[in-house]
Design a protein that fits this description.
mainly alpha, elongated
Amino acid sequence: MIVPREWAIDRERELADLAGGGVPRKTLREALTRYSEDESPKKRGHKWEATRINGWMGRINSKTGLPSELSMSWLDTQLADLSADDLSIWRDSRLKSVTAGSVLREMNLLGAILETARREWRWLLKNPLRDVRRPSQPEARSRRIAQAEIDSLCLGLGWDEEPVGTQTQEVAAAFLLAIETAMRQGEMLGLTWDTVDFARRVARLPRTKNGSARAIRCLYHPAPLRSSSCLRAGMNSGSLPYLRQAAMHCSARERHGR
């Protein structure tokens, strides 16, 4: 196999830099690309990471046909020249558009990329994000949704415990299933018919966010699920695929802040 001349030249330069005690001349774009291809797929949350990295790289949004508004202006800056000031400006800009919690998640991802570049790839001598102050952690939610709010939402979504037939009813079924079981969106998306025991009203999750399996039991729930479990009311008539679609729909709306 013939090695392309450009690759050979870059590799020689990289080896020379390392031999001289320096770091190879790599850009942030190259770090994002390598991380998204080699590291991110190993994680359960790789889809979110891929979406965020694609946004940072200014790739075309498949829905709008426009470059992502998340695009970073210093993609082609060499990692060695990336400063804490650059990252502080980026942090402040993001805080004007999204919540502190979203910025924290983005900083965690970028920090993991830069730290991998430093520790594993030897592309950095120092991670500049370590010198950037992180936004305060938002307060945990403490309010529970009231029954009157549940009834009002179900009424507005057209839920009547009949087989699901519209998108709004799909959302209602997913909403009630989440209330009844406290399952995460990803866990609802992972449901299959063979993991649900309707007779015992139990859903078995073979893999959860923390990596372990667990069983979810649907207990009695007040109106609008007076006489049937949420599993039966929400999924008994072929509506499991609708629940999966609804969870994906809700997840997409949350990601885009709508």
